[in-house]
Amino acid sequence: xxxxxxxxxxxxxxxxxxxxTLLVGACSSGKKANSTPSSTSGPHGRINISDGQAGAxxxxxxxxxxxxxxxxxxxxxxxxxxxxxxxxxxxIQPELATAYxxxxxxxxxxxxxxxxxxxxxxxxxxxxxxxxxxxVLQKNAATNAYGLxxxxxxxxxxxxxxxxxxxxxxxYTDLWYALGQTYMVPxxxxxxxxxxxxxxNTSPVGTGxxxxxxxxPQIYKLKANPAYWQPGAPKIGxxxxxxxxxxxxxxxxxxxxxxxxxxxxxxxVQNVYVKKNPAHNLYDVAHLFQTDLNPNLTKWPTxxxxxxxxxxxxxxxATIIKQVYSGIAAPASPVxxxxxxxAKYVAPQYQGxxxxxxxxxxxxxxxxxxxxxxGADGIFAGSKGxxxxxxxxxxxxxxxxxxxxxxxxxxxxxxIDLEIQQVSYNDFKSKEARxxxxxxxxxxxxxxxxxxxxxNLLSSKNTAASSPDHVATTNWSGYSDPxxxxxxxxxxxxxxxxxxxxxxxxxxxxxxxxxxxxYIEVVQAGNLSEFTNLNATGWPSESNxxxxxxxWQHPDLGIVAKTITPTK
Length: 568
Description:
The protein is α+β, with helices and mostly antiparallel strands. It has 16 helices and 24 strands.
């Protein structure tokens, strides 16, 4: 099971993209998939989706919330200004905006909006809505999940289709966050909301290809937006999101042909799923993230570097890749970069660096050198107590649970007692964000260059300690270091993040991951998506990666949903 939030891969030339104006006409996403035409005119047909959330759905369509909103919110109901196709470096496509241009120092971003777009309640989408949306982020830190450094005012409106975003510092590397990860909301509705960060928004009004039709804790349904701005899209008339108790029940539904799109962990997917119905069953693999054990750096024992080193040294990563992921996952990068996508960013001293094989002796030596003593039960203890560590995992996420069972056996040999605690998805996200854990297992990554993952995971502004609500946005471990913050700021101020200064900064950031282990990498995730072409065709594939295929990937799921074509 893959965490439904993290983003990854990269753009080849941020400098060229930052300096140039992107001039494009009508959005072309509807013609990217080779779909089988249907003879029925207008949106029709239905698909059923499992997004991997176990248990009952909680009605929440707030696009400002980074973790608790329902999957369909970002991409299907609410849209971004541009779409960044992370499968193809440099592929940025128009959505609600058609062009953008930076000023000379990267502090102002002029954006041209698409004309003729309407909100699903019939009112016009204008630059005032864009300015309002960014104003919310500037005024309410809890809504600014990526810490966009917006000035006051956050945006200046020139006319209904032209708006300028204002930043307090050079912000070239924030292009993806601003245009590709910020979801526009209607000013005429949200300006009456007392606190946009807390509103559950049960009657969402967006510009996206779908609108909410009905909701229940077991299933919520969307229907095609009849006033959608893109001609001929969407083609599907209804999209249902169905909740299951966990991987076993959702996998059974997939095998029974009850699911059209899923992001499930299916061991040996070719034999277990595809060969069951080779004429119709399909799958795709996306390499987006690292699967990490996130240590809490604010609490013992995981704030002790010796303990983190012992955990890392004691893990049998090769067995996990083989037994849990059937070879779909890849070896993790010690510098926390998805490979080979980010290979050119790896500093010379770390080229070819990999995690060594499981080394129980070294793990025990790490602990002994730090003053821990092995007890009669084989578990080390120190002045603060016995090394018994609890790792949180979401109930029903069977791949993570299987992975942790191997890690538990590994660490027992190393002298660490690992307890696996399964909790609900909502409880997991709450505990992770508030730092109420010792270890959690999660997918980490993000963005079209390494800067995004590094900023997400290392920037002190993304910690719970920096949040007025004491809720972390992306820096789950609580890592905080002024020098690291400055390195991130230096990269953000450079229009070319492959230049010599940026690369020198990246090298120092890589040293943080290698030497300090603020996150303990386990594997490079292979994120599976399963499809059937019984009810719809035109899904992303190895030969046609017009969007990322995981159903939880935002806003890609909206691009996919408005591209596929019903078969009947």
